[in-house]
Amino acid sequence: MINQLTLVEIRALDAGSWFSPRFAGTRIPTLEEFLKSFGKKTHLVLEIKDEKATRETLLIVKNLRLLNNVIFTSFNLKIVEGIKDFEPRANIGFLTREVTREILKILKNLDIKQICPYAPLLSSSLVEKIRLFDISIRAWGVETEELMGKMLDLGVYSMTVNSPDKLIDLLKKRKIIENNLKNSVSNL
């Protein structure tokens, strides 16, 4: 597991050969290096999986003045609470497979502005229930064009996808965005 390696060991790994010989020798950047390169060019979602990484991740983002460019997410409610405690101005989303009234109340009480439900389980009634709490929705697990279409039909325009080019094509086809967006995205 990568979390058992030291930074020196991780930096020695070849992160590009699997993709193409042209990328052989590509090294894995640190979060700080990545954010310095891309943090001001795009909006980012950083998922925090380990409570021990919370404070350091927030400090890096704050020091680079990227707080408005980042949404911090986690499946762990304790991490979400820790982010809110450490930096009340942070944009935070709670990743979850199951959306319950209790979870929505907790998020509302914590002033968490976004919930990230598992897309295949979303329905119009669930979207309506979430919106009653005035919490935005960013779906995850959107792995097919069919699911992208379902999210758009539900009025969920924020989603995590593996094929952004396919989502852009679908958004253009439905006339939700203009044709020139794909060029600006590909120039990042």
Write a short abstract of this structure.
The chain is 41% helix and 15% strand. The protein has 188 residues and is α/β, with parallel strands linked by helices.
Strand-helix topology:
Layout: H1 7-12, H2 31-38, E1 44-47, H3 54-63, E2 70-74, H4 77-86, E3 91-96, H5 101-110, E4 114-117, H6 124-132, E5 136-137, E6 139-142, H7 145-153, E7 159-161, H8 164-173, H9 181-186
Can you offer a commentary on this structure?
The structure is a single chain. By secondary structure, the chain is an alpha/beta fold. It has a single domain, classed as Alpha-Beta Barrel (TIM Barrel). It contains nine helices and seven strands, in the order H-H-E-H-E-H-E-H-E-H-E-E-H-E-H-H. Mean pLDDT is 92; it is low at 184-188.
The best one-word shape is globular
Largest sheet: 5 strands, parallel
Residue fraction in strands = 5-15%
CATH-defined architecture: Alpha-Beta Barrel
Helices, by number, come to: 9
Assign the CATH topology.
Answer: TIM Barrel
CATH homologous superfamily classification: Phosphatidylinositol (PI) phosphodiesterase
CATH class: Alpha Beta
Helix content: 40-55%
**Number of separate structural domains:** 1
How far is the N terminus from the C terminus?
A: 30 Å
What descriptive keywords fit this protein?
single chain, about 190 residues, alpha/beta, TIM Barrel, five-stranded parallel β-sheet
